[in-house]
Write a structure and sequence with these properties.
The chain is an all-alpha fold and 130 residues long. Helix content is 68%, strand content 0%.
């Protein structure tokens, strides 16, 4: 979801405050010198991780009690939710979020930038209605 004018104004205000304090501001991809391809992978991983976390919380599951549902421990759930590169593959995050009831369409919507709260709310609402 793109930032609102109010969000943009708050970001600009915070940036000005930081610069006045001697800090520099910028985009994480520039700071980390990411290629556009790697930046896209990072963004994809983070969007999927947020979808996973939202679906878990929407089902009132803790990271610790995902074992019964997905067969993973708390540590693994935490890594999935943080989307840690090199430790958690995009495939693993997709598998976990599907295990919590997400559809391919849900994943596509998250990848396209839709707010996971909207996606999971609709899915969980559908599940409770049937």
């Amino acid at each position: 979801m793109p930032p609102t004018d109010e969000d943009s104004a708050k970001i600009a205000e915070e940036d000005a405050r930081l610069v006045a304090g001697g800090w520099s501001t910028g985009i994480y991809a520039d700071f980390l010198q990411l290629t556009p391809e790697l930046e896209a992978c990072v963004e994809l991983r983070l969007r999927l991780a947020k979808l996973f976390r939202t679906f878990r919380k929407g089902q009132n599951l803790t990271q610790a009690n995902l074992g019964g549902k997905l067969g993973i421990n708390q540590s693994r759930a935490s890594r999935l939710e943080r989307g840690i590169s090199g430790v958690t593959s995009i495939d693993a995050i997709v598998e976990a979020v599907v295990g919590l009831g997400a559809t391919i369409e849900d994943i596509g919507r998250a990848v396209a930038g839709e707010d996971p709260e909207t996606i999971s709310g609709q899915r969980l609402g559908d599940a409770t209605a049937s």
